[in-house]
From TrEMBL:
Pfam families: Ferritin
PROSITE patterns: DPS_1, DPS_2
Protein name (Swiss-Prot/TrEMBL): DNA starvation/stationary phase protection protein
Superkingdom of origin organism: Bacteria
Organism for this UniProt entry: Nocardioides furvisabuli
Disordered: region residues: 1-22, 179-201
Length: 201
């Protein structure tokens, strides 16, 4: 990793400006606007991948191995989504930003709240994380609607994210189908509610 240095105001070796082009069939303004809509999706998915890995390292309890091993394919899948969106941005003529400083500066959500916790607590918190990411991905479908190719990518990713959430939610449902986290709005609140239920058994 490079040493931290004072940055110069301008440079001739790098640019974050849009390219003077986009894909055939779209005008540059439309292509760049569609690509810009993907940047927050890149940030959100980078954050999600790190959060899932953090949970993967920190789950404990009798169901550890099942949850630990369930999360790795989800992490890999989310990382693949990031690459697809970033490459689509570049294809459309906009340089993607995958740097951690840009993510932290742009995000509208807080860091994940849990560290070492039992599997039920992490799954309860991750369910809410997935809900936020999926809701924003669904909003992005409309935002990129002027480009059916990009729209198709985001729709496919939303379906995959919904399936990942289904795997998480299966651990939180009873036979009635109701989620154990029903009525909660924050990660800690959801985790505490599920942990209390687990202790009563």
């Amino acid at each position: 990793m490079a040493k931290k240095t004072t940055r110069s105001a301008t440079t001739s070796v790098s640019s974050d400006a849009d390219a003077p082009l986009t894909v055939p069939g779209l005008d540059a303004a439309t292509g760049h606007r569609v690509a810009d809509a993907l940047q927050m999706r890149v940030h959100a998915l980078n954050d999600l991948a790190l959060t899932l890995k953090h949970a993967h390292w920190n789950v404990v309890g009798p169901h550890f191995i099942g949850v630990h091993e369930m999360l790795d394919p989800q992490i890999d899948g989310v990382r693949d989504m990031i690459d697809v969106l970033a490459e689509r941005m570049s294809t459309l003529g906009v340089p993607p930003n995958g740097l951690p400083g840009a993510l932290v500066a742009a995000r509208t959500w807080d860091d994940y709240d849990l560290t070492r916790a039992d599997t039920a607590a992490h799954l309860a918190a991750l369910d809410l994380v997935y809900t936020g990411v999926i809701e924003d991905h669904r909003a992005a479908i409309e935002a990129v609607g002027d480009d059916p190719v990009t729209e198709d990518i985001v729709i496919g990713q939303t379906a995959d994210l919904e399936q990942f959430q289904w795997f998480v939610r299966a651990h939180l449902q009873g036979v009635s189908g109701e989620l154990a986290t029903s009525g909660t709005s924050g990660e800690v609140e959801a985790a505490e509610k599920v942990s209390r239920r687990s202790r009563k058994r």
